[in-house]
Structure formats: C-alpha cells, structure tokens
Amino acid sequence: MTDPTTPAHSSPLLEMRGIVKRFPGVLALDGVELEVRAGEVHCLLGQNGAGKSTLIKVLSASYLPDDGEILWDGEPVALATPQAAMTIGISTIYQELDLVPDLSVAENISLGHELSTVGFSHRGRTNQRARDLLARLGHAEIPATRSVGRLSPAAQQIVSLARALSHDTRLLVLDEPSAVLDQAEVSNLFRVIRELTSQGVAVVYISHRLEEIRQIGDRITVLKDGSTVATGLPVEDTPTSDLIRLMTGRSIEYVFPPRRDAASHVGDVVLEVSGLELAGVFSGVNLTVHAGEIVGLAGLVGAGRSEIIETLYGARRPAAGTVAVSGQPLRRGSVSAAVRAGVGLCPEERKSQGLLLDQAVYRNITVSSMGRFSRLGLLDSRAERRSARQVTDSLDVRPAGVDRLVRLLSGGNQQKVVLARWLLRECRVLLLDEPTRGVDVGARTEIYALVRSLADAGVAVVVVSSEVEEVLGLADRVLVVREGHVVHEGPADEIDESRVLDLVMEGEVA
Amino acid sequence: MTEHRTNADTSAVENPVAPSPGSVAVERAAAADADRQSRSQSIMSGSVGRNLGLVVALVLICAAGVITTGDRFASVDNVLTILRLASTIGVVSIGMTFVITGGGFDLSVGAILALSSVWATTFATQNMAEDTHWLIMVFAALAVGAACGVVNGVLIAYGKVVPFITTLAMLAAARGLAEIISERRTQIVSVDGFRDAFSSDVLGVPLLVIIFLLVAAAGWVLLNRTTFGRRTLAVGGNPEAARLAGINVNRHTVMLYVLVGLCCGLAALMLVSRTTTGSATHGLYYELDAIAAVVIGGTLLSGGRGTIVGTVFGVLIFATLSNVFTLNNQDTSTQAVAKGLIIVVAVLLQQRLARRATAT
Asked: What is the ipTM of this complex?
C-alpha cells in the first residue's frame, strides 16, 4: 500500500495492519490498513457505519482489536490501555468533548498530570502552562482561569487541543472537529492544524465534508463496511466522483423488499406535519405521509433528522408548527397524545430510549397497550404473554420465550421487540430512527421486509437512517436534510446514492 | 474508557448462535419448555429464593430472643406487641417501596406523619369530629398526607428538583409546621369513637396489625398485578424509555408521592391511636427506618425493581430485633449499632446475588 510518490526519508509514524474488531453479530472492522506519516494530515473517509469510529477507538485503545498489528515508529506496540496510547503520543479528540465543565481551562488542560508538590497544586505554574499552550495554538485570548463550561464550543475544542499538546502528542486524531464550528472557526482550526503539522505532528482527520478535506488534507484513506478500500490517495489528484464511488461501492448487498407500484400505494393522508420548527435545530419542515407509504429522511448525524421525528412524536416541544394524524391535530410536546393517536416510535438509542432492559420481553411489548390487558387496572398477565408470544413468533424473535429478560437478546432481536410493541398496538404511524443500527445482516433483511409489510397493511412509515442505501432501498419517497432544512424531496427511485451524498455533504449537486 | 471494553465483553457472551432454519420449530417447542422452566425458576428465586436470606435472618433473631428471654419473647402477647409496633412503620415502608421502585426517594415520611398526626388532633378537628363523626379525623390525616405528597411530586416531576432535596425541604417544613400548629404541645385524643374504633381487635388481632396486613396485601397486588405497578417498574427502570413508550412519567411520579403521602397519613392515624396523642415529635427517623426496611428487603435503590414481601420482612426484622434488645434490657444505642450492621451485611449480600444473577 505504499504510495510511490513518497519521499524515502518520510517513514511512517503509524502503521495499522489487518485490524479486526468484532462485536456481537457485527464485524465492525475486517482487516483495516492505515499508514500515517509524521507531519501529514491524513483524512479518513467513509459512510456512517463504515468503521471510522471503531478504528479510532482502537487507536486510542478504548477498544482492543481482535486481530492485527500496530506499528509505531516501525516497532510493534500493544496499546492495552488508553494511558498507554497517550504515553507513546497518541491523542484523540472526540466529537463529544471530554472536558470537565466546572473546572478552569488550566485545570482541564492539566487534568491527569497536574503540577503539584505533595498534593498541593501549583496554581501559578498550571495557569502559565495553559497560557503557553493556548498561545502556541494562537488563542492567547482564552482566559486560563475561566471555567470551561462558560466557553463557546469552538473555544472548548481549542482547550481539548491544548490538553492533547500538553501530553507531547505526536499523533492527533480529530473526529469530525468541524461539526460544532462555523466557517471562521473552521479556518482558524485549520491554521492550528497546519502549525502542528509543520512541527512534525501527524493528524488523522475525520470529516464528512469533502470541501474541508480538499483544503486541509494530504492523503486519504477510504473505509467501507469495515475494510480499507483505498489508502494513501493523494488529495489533489483524486476526483470527488472517485471518492464517492469508493465509499458507496458495496460488498454486501442488502435485500430490500419490492415496492408496490406507485398508483396503488397512495392511500389517505395519515400524517401531516407543517411548518415544524425546533429552536436552533431545524425549521420549516413539512411532511405528508399517506397510508401505505414509507418516507425516508436522509442526512448526516446532527443534520436534525432524529430531532424531526422526535419532535413530531411529541418527545420534544416544537417552537412552531403542527402535527396532525388523520386530520386530528396532536397536542404539542405530548408523547402520550401521539401514542393515543396511533403513533409509535422506535428510537435511535434502543437500549437507553427504547427498552426496559431488566424486564421480560412480554412486558416490553405490552407496555404501550396495557389498557387492552387490564380491567379496573388489574392486568391479565396470561393474556399479555399470549399476545406477546403471537407477535414475537410472527417476527421470529430468537431465542423464543417472552419471559426472557430483554438484556439477554442480541441487537437485532431487541429491535424486533421494540417493533413488536407497536405491532401489538396496531399503530397507524410508525417512526423508525436508525432501525438497523447494531443489527446483523440477516436480521436487517427481516426488518426491512417487516417494515414493508406493515406499510402494505396501511401503516404510514417514516424512516431515518444514516445509511443512504437503506433510505433509498426501503423508502418510497426521500427527504434529504442538511443543517436543519429539507434540501430535497422526491421519489426514492429517482435519486441515487451519490447524489444524496453530494446533497448532504456539499449542499449542491455535483 | 474501560467501560467500553467491559460492555463489549459482556455483550460478546450474549451473542446467540444463529440456528439453522430447519430446526426452528423444534427449537421453538424447546424454548417454550425452557420458558416455563425459567418461569418456575424465577418463582423460586423470586419469592422464596430471594427472600430466603430474610427468612433466615428473622429466624435467627427469633432464636436469639427465645434463647435469651425464653417465654417472655415467645408469647402471643409479645408477638402481638412486635406486630403492633411494626405496623405503623410497615405502612410507611410499603409506600416507600413504591416511591423507590419508581426511581424516587422520600426523606419526608416521618415529618409528613407528624404533621398529619397533629392536624388530625387539633382542637378544631376534634371538635368537628365530636360534632359529626370521628371519620373527620381520618379524612384530615389522609388529606394532609396526600397534599404533602402532591407538593413533593409536583416539585420533583414538573419542577425537576431532585427528590433528595425536595423531600429534605419537606422534612424540615412539615415538621416545623407541625410544631407551629401544635405549639409544641402533645395533643391528647378525646374523641371516643376514634379511640374505640382503632383500638379494637378482630379475633384477638389488633386492628393496627390488620391494617398493616391489608395495606401490604393491597400493595403487593398494586405492584405486581396492575397497570399502575407495571408503570412504576417501567418509570423506575428507564424513565426515558417509559416516556417514549407513551407513559405519562411526570403524572405517574406525582401519583407515587401522593401514594406514599397517603400511607403516611394512615400511619399517623395508627400512631395517634396507639399513643392516643398527636405530636410534632411523632415519626422521628421514620424515613431512615423505612428506607432501611425497603433496602434490606431487596428493592433496588436505583429503581426498577421492588418487592413488597421483602419490605414486610425488612420491617419485621427490625421490629423483632428491637423487641429482643428491649427484653434484654439493652439500650437503644446498642440497637442502633446492630441495625447499622444488619443494613450493611444485607446490602452486601444483595449485591453479590445481583452480580450472580446478571452473570448467568
């Protein structure tokens, strides 16, 4: 994988060879190759779920790889603990910054390696170290004694960078650093990055925005479905179309159920959303879903997709706009009202938002339809189990047995349990947020088929997914969301994956 | 950071082996069997198994009582004394079980009890009760308890003040108000109807004990057999998931605090009848006793799992212990030390069991 244009003296700082990482039912990394040289900005590209996050967690030793080899300065190293990674000079700045909001800037920078004598901290020297590092980053204006929670996101990011530098960093990993920044802040960040690389620091840069990669990157590695599909591509000589082709070319083909022909699926309007707005997140969202129709929302993480469906479900209180089900407007910000009107949500974070993990499968399924199994508040748990068993059988939840704790099921089967809840409820509108995240290939196909059969039975379905292919394959109609606005709406079979990627990444048609 | 790894490890263990399609039917039948089996097992570990430790503890304490004091302990009178003493704190503990199972916490039970006892025994209330019916006193106590519960619940559910702080404030305020109303005097009950009704026996069993047993039975049904109980478990186990499943979590939280408030009102009446007084000093440290009984009973302090049977055992263990110490002429300080030890040992054992349960 060596780039022939490489000057001989620039030996790689980091080499990752054949990295494999397995999770239950999912092969997250399947032989990833990555080679980073001192002083370069190496961009990591790939769709959501391609394995970028897993890879950098292996690099920061948050995850231990199941197989593969990591070379540092040409020597094999075992990164057993996050401290070990930090000691050899690898620093990672995640999307969610890991700062302590109530400590000062200086205290955050020195966190974990405080300057002290027998436990008494040297406040003066700590502050001075912070000021030096901030000045080196060109941000001497950030007060070292202010608490981090009072800084802007951009300034917080600079503090994270300063903390990384305080560790004698030789390799800096930045996971979508521009996501929280505006234009001016991004160019400032780039200036800082160039400064660091001129001092010989290597940077691994993850971003969805191709325009940024063009500005800052030296070489590109593309991941897809957990493997490296191209590595060491020079940024200047690689056309965008090549990159998109590399990111979307499939090795696994998902089987999507056939759509019905356009004429037959236009039922009555079931869900009608108009002018929906959530302050600071999205605005002016209009959405109409007919019975029997699947509408997909595509967009990047943070574009506002999940927020849109959570708001129309009543889980967030909108600033403006109305949601109506079968012509009846719903009370704003009330999940109970939405559920009563026949709306169901399979939330993005299945474990924390969807399931009662330490309760039996049947209780998770009947929780939204308890009224049906109770008389004067008394529950008929035999009837509950019977109904739950019918639904889990029809969905083929494995292992069978409705008294099993949900915690003990795999991701795909847990997702089926959430679906079973709304199936039992016989809802008219089904909202699916990342329905196949953490779900293995086999169960995916089953879930796709189930969603389509629900639509065929007259349910109005809205699907949100980070995987463009999933949205296009499953939905009848697609809305593309970028930074809180719907930038495209149209039939799913009239748009292809690369066009959607263009829309979500660059906001314009290539 | 380490959490990531342990998560990955445990989930790796859970990874099920995908069966071949042909064996599905067979497997389903087997699974139904396993289902039934696991249910009977869960009954074992649920009612008897999980409470086995509590039964053993109670038996040991009783044995100690019989050995040290003989018939003075093992007499019908003494047993009834224990039960009568246990009944007041028992009713409060049942309410506390619900709040804790629902993910909450209530430090104000003792103070609410004191306020209810005072309000039900003021001159005004007693005069009105004399003129009309002694049930006026019952209504007064229950209404005060419920009202305090509403205040707690609304502040916690809608005001988003953490339960610890809210009920700490109520603890201070309710007892203070009780002192103001009673002018720090003990109020004697003069309504004969009330005294007679509450001190009556049913087949030789004091009414107070019967009330406790009825409340415990009703609590068991409520927690295990009703939509209210199921919602309590859901709200305590994962409030966000409960909310997204369509449960009105805020309203349910208020109802839980009203429920414990009502229990305090009822317990106040029981204490008023036993002591024939209402006083701002009633129910001192009841919050600690109730929480201790609930926790050693096996209810999860973080919510999502609760057991009424366990709470009843917890109450009986402490009441019996205190009785044995009293019969042996030990002072209350020694009792307190023993109580502390029991709480720690019980919770340590519980955590062991919980870890073993999640490991399998």
From this structure: 0.80
